[in-house]
Design brief:
Elements (H helix, E strand, L loop, with lengths): L9 H12 L3 H20 L4 E3 L3 E8 L2 E4 L6 E4 L2 E8 L1 H7 L1
Antiparallel strand pairs: 1-2, 2-5, 3-4
Amino acid sequence: MTEETRPLSRQDVIDAAASATGLPKTQADALLKAALAAVGDALGAGREVRLAGFGSFAISERAARQGRNPATGEVVQIAASKGVKFKPAKDLKERLG
């Protein structure tokens, strides 16, 4: 895996934020933690999160359904669940090409 293809880590984001803002890395880390906590708290409360120029996060509810165990073929019940869906903003879509 080359540097260009490896996933961006949390530390990479902190380093980029510190470099772009001139903040010490400890403050950039605290800022990232606070921002992610705010997003998580809002989603946990059922609210949508919109970040202009980046995209929006929303809760997606999946209904209960039947599935099959691929090893045995047995029918199993899959419980209802919630997930997070992301919709990129127009600006982000354009940057992706």
